[in-house]
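Hi R.,

Here's the chain you asked about this morning:
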Amino acid sequence: MQIIKNQDILKRQSSNYIKGELSNVAMAIQNSPILVDYYPINVDLSPTLSGFKNVEDFIGPESPVVYDHIEKFPMAGIDNLTTTAQFDEELGFDEDLQSSGMIFPNTIVAKPYDLFMIPNGVVPALYIVTNIIPTTVRSNPFVEIQFRLFSRDPEVIAQMKRQVRTEYVTTVTAIGPDKSLVITKENYFQIEDHIKSYLEILDLYRTLFWDAQRSGFIFSSLYDETTDSQIEYIDVVLWRLMFDFNIIICDDVITYGINNLNMKIRRTYTSDPDKYVDDHNFKRSILYRLLTRDHKNDFAEFKFPQSYSPDPRYGKYTGQNLYYFEFYDKQCDCNLMCTQMPVWDDEFVDRIRNNQPYEECILALYLEKQQESPCDDTGCGPKVTEYPFNPYLRNAIIAWYNGTRIDWENLIIEDKKTSENYFLLPIILGAYKHYIGKLQK
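And the predicted structure, written out as tokens:
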């Protein structure tokens, strides 16, 4: 992804667990979490071995059992006797150690015969889960595990690690509701790269349209010749879209970046705009139907924002030349946003409806801003010096609504106060957030 302009992972995770969201859970069970190396059995790749008598055969050169490895996995309730390896001066290390601990919600489904190790112990030791007991603490679904010492043999530990298939890490927070905090290492680094791009778009949008004094996203690039003045608009429907779907406003991607990647990111907060926009008008707008990919209704049935003079209900959203859009209708009411800077033109709407992205030659012409079209003989487009829209941005909207792949790495956005950026970038961020969230699975 590009915008056209006019420390060690494990160390970061370890330092963030205690001060992040998991610390609240730890308080609930009166124990600070200990970060372990957890080795769950991969049930999809391992045959079922019934009976505890077979547990000794789980690890070995001929063993069919496959493990996964979760680094820095938080567990609670493991006391100091475990971390100091139960050393007795007369008997040596206690080989009959049995104890219990807690597994946090939204992490893993613990199973009997899972293994774990506690880093930096006096002597490396491998523990095995013998029983699981679902429990609830302050309405949170924890799992209590019972475990025993399995082996201190370095060869057994080394062989177990050779049976590991996939490497995972545990994050402090997840993107979106009901997402697991445990993700593969490969996906973690992919998510990190995409979050940086996501936040770059977010920061651009905030730079272009955020009015700090009014605490709102305002479009202010239209000139009214009749009054010889600059006209400003605030789209309350768009405001609610961002608020309800946590796009820019109370954005959980920002939370993820702060908690997991130690990013310094400013948060954006606004009041709830639902008192200005009812559900009926909100959910029939082209913005809502595009973002939610509503195929039961015509997404472009209500595509024209309706302009109104300042209203005292809006308090600080007032001013001689500030107008607001409270709902969308079927026809333009001749406000400047409709007449001077149309976003939902018929061609764009038809391309969305027919899943017809802009061709490569149009994309190239947009980038090169050249006088002659590179493919005039094919009828790709007119001879113009500059397209009045961003076909890359429009292609992403077309792909999102039709469920096709968006090439996020090659998405191009202009650093300009255009109406397209004002209306489309929040939808793009909603689509991007959905894509990033799927990488956590």
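Residues 22-171 form one domain.

Let me know if you need anything else.
M.
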